[in-house]
Design a protein that fits this description.
The structure holds 2 protein chains of 2 kinds.
Chain A: E1 5-8, E2 13-17, H1 24-40, E3 45-50, E4 54-59, H2 61-64, H3 72-80, E5 96-103, H4 111-117, H5 122-130, E6 134-139, E7 146-149, E8 164-167, E9 171-175, E10 178-181, E11 186-188, E12 191-195, E13 216-221
Parallel strand pairs in A: 5-13
Antiparallel strand pairs in A: 1-2, 2-4, 3-4, 5-12, 6-7, 6-13, 7-10, 8-11, 9-10, 9-12
Chain B: E1 2-7, E2 13-15, H1 35-44, E3 53-57, E4 62-65, E5 69-82, E6 85-86, E7 92-95, E8 100-116, E9 149-151, E10 182-186, H2 195-203, E11 206-208, E12 216-220, E13 235-236, E14 241-243, E15 251-253, E16 260-261, E17 265-269, H3 274-277, E18 285-286, E19 288-290, H4 293-319
Parallel strand pairs in B: 10-19
Antiparallel strand pairs in B: 1-4, 1-9, 2-3, 3-8, 4-8, 5-6, 5-7, 5-8, 10-17, 11-12, 11-18, 12-15, 13-16, 14-15, 14-17
Helix pairs in contact in B: 1-4
Classes of the chains: A alpha+beta, B alpha+beta.
């Protein structure tokens, strides 16, 4: 496994960076490292923040600098480096979740225009969106918002020139080379192609997020207003 | 015991020291934008450092206490009256049952933190009572409204009034109409600024706009330009990073920032200066001055040591008979 670059982000955070691309292999490194660091249960680590190709550790600077006696970032790096997995991460163990989506119509107001822009009919667009087995690269932007890897390049679409003030919860959307799902009602600039009745984020549920980084996701087209059979899409 | 909101103020919210450990879910920290000020206010009323209080912004709320409650206000200099009588910040007061606390306008600065004896006792959401206004997350996932009733916890050892006829010196903790530059470390993409912008960043003033909020201070000034536009993949963020969106007008992120983002990062405000950012009012002129990492770390450690010592001194005085 390639070793990351190490970069301080302020006095109390250390960034590990494997690259600056959206790439499934780099992302797998990030999550393998996050798991290893998390399992080590190091003291005074306040947050482990995985992203596409980088991982941030937020820490208590006074603990790691021994109250200013040494450089906290160096001390933490020395401690973390031996923990990083050396083998290529195993990506076979991830679970697969099926997400029912009502495409088009009120559920996906941008579908028809987007399909036209991509030079295909809406049905073809939907079949190409439901075809891939996506991978959750990270949760971010808002609580429980999954950034999914694996979008068909023919479906790439620019963000809307002017973001919507209100995107309904469950909206399935495309922004650039990425596809994702709005977990709650939010402002947003991605193109809306459908909606799922599944609840992606509920802070009172354990765990709060339906999806976690590393999960495999498959979208399944369902008629609009179809009842959700389960709260958790089974594999 | 509870406190009723008779008028909410401009943007008041329940805050504690924030929500740690859930960033992998996309859940940010939120919490008081100046954790030190909240901690000191909590210490003055005998609370634990992480007790939930109220963050008030520019114009404060009017509150009614249904039982005797100790309170303390730390941060910006707000007009405050208890049943009509002026009360000072940076010390604790005893509000009798049925009394009215009126917090007016900030005369200097932008935000203050009101600690209430026993703390606001709402159920924790993901380990915290903090309000993330942007994500609408928290036990009260919005700003205060007229008619809200906030339950208060029981003080395990209520400090008595006669022990509290003293106040803190706000000077090290609140620097009002402060014109000193914000000390800034170079960000990941600082070297990608063109030469004129690199110089402008450290010399020219920027003005905080009215669209600034708990997510960030949005600046307006001579637009900063990159040598060459480039694509950024989203990376994790921390408070104090200075982002450069395509408009060329920087944004300094505060405690309610999203966990990750993809704008170029041209700077990182030293943590010792983050409490000053919480006090920036719209229209305030800001300047940046470079600092090195070792100095920034030393200043942060000194500030935290001083804060810990002061909290310990307050605790010791409250325990004196």
């Amino acid at each position: 496994m390639s070793m990351p670059d190490w970069e301080p982000l302020g006095e109390s955070a250390l960034l590990l960076r494997w690259g600056q691309r959206i790439d499934a292999a780099l992302n797998a490194h990030v999550h393998a490292a996050a798991a290893a660091i998390s399992n080590a249960a190091l003291p005074a680590i306040e947050d482990i923040v995985p992203a596409y190709a980088s991982l941030l550790l937020r820490f208590d600077a006074r603990h790691w600098s021994r109250d200013g006696a040494c450089d906290a970032h160096t001390a933490l790096r020395t401690c973390i480096e031996p923990l990083l997995p050396t083998a290529a991460p195993d990506v076979q163990s991830a679970r697969t979740l099926r997400i029912p989506v009502a495409y088009g119509g009120d559920s996906g107001p941008d579908l028809d225009a987007l399909a036209r822009t991509c030079g295909m009919d809406a049905q073809t667009f939907v079949s190409r969106h439901t075809a891939p087995l996506y991978r959750v690269a990270m949760l971010g932007f808002a609580p429980g918002f999954p950034y999914l890897l694996g979008l068909d390049a023919a479906l790439y679409a620019p963000r809307r020139a002017s973001p919507r003030v209100r995107v309904p919860a469950g909206s399935v959307a495309i922004g650039g080379a990425q596809t994702g799902i709005y977990p709650s009602e939010l402002p947003g600039g991605w193109q809306l192609i459908g909606r799922t009745p599944l609840r992606l984020f509920d802070p009172t549920r354990t765990p709060p997020c339906l999806l976690r980084a590393g999960d495999r996701v498959r979208f399944v087209a369902v008629p609009a207003e179809a009842p959700a059979h389960t709260d958790r899409g089974a594999a | 015991m509870s406190v009723s909101v008779l008028a909410p103020g401009l943007s008041s919210s329940v805050q504690d020291l924030g929500r740690c450990g859930h960033a992998a879910l996309g859940v940010g920290r939120a919490g008081a934008l100046d954790g030190d000020a909240l901690r000191l206010a909590n210490a003055l009323v005998g609370n634990l450092p992480g007790a939930a209080g109220i963050e008030i912004t520019l114009t404060g709320p009017r509150l009614r206490f249904d039982a005797p409650v100790a309170f303390a206000l730390c941060g910006a200099d707000f007009e405050a009256r208890l049943d009509g009588a002026i009360v000072a910040s940076w010390r604790s007061h005893d509000a009798p049952a049925g009394s009215l606390l009126e917090l007016g306008h900030a005369r200097n600065g932008c935000r203050a933190w009101l600690a209430l004896g026993g703390g606001i006792a709402l159920p924790r959401i993901l380990d915290s009572c903090a309000t993330d206004l942007n994500a609408a997350l928290g036990p009260l996932p919005r700003v205060l409204r007229t008619g809200d009733v906030l339950p208060l916890g029981a003080l395990h050892d209520p400090p008595r009034a006669h022990r509290r006829r003293w106040s803190l010196d706000p000077r090290p903790w609140f620097a009002g109409a402060d014109v000193a530059p914000l000390r800034v470390l170079p960000g990941r993409d600082h070297a990608r600024l063109d030469a004129a912008s690199r110089s402008a960043f450290h010399t020219l003033p920027f003005r905080a706009t009215a669209t600034s909020n708990r997510v960030g201070v949005r600046l307006d000034g001579t637009p900063l330009r990159l040598e060459q536009a480039f694509e950024c993949v989203s990376e994790p963020l921390v408070p104090g990073v200075v982002q450069l969106p395509p408009s060329g007008q920087p944004i300094i992120l505060l405690g309610e920032h999203p966990v990750s983002g993809g704008y170029p990062l041209i700077g990182q405000v030293a943590a010792v200066d983050l409490p000053r950012l919480a006090q920036v009012r719209p229209g305030t002129a800001l300047r940046f001055a470079p600092i090195d990492a070792a100095t920034a770390a030393a200043l942060l450690h000194a500030r935290r040591r001083a804060r810990d010592q002061l909290e310990a001194q307050i605790r010791a005085r409250l325990e004196q008979v």
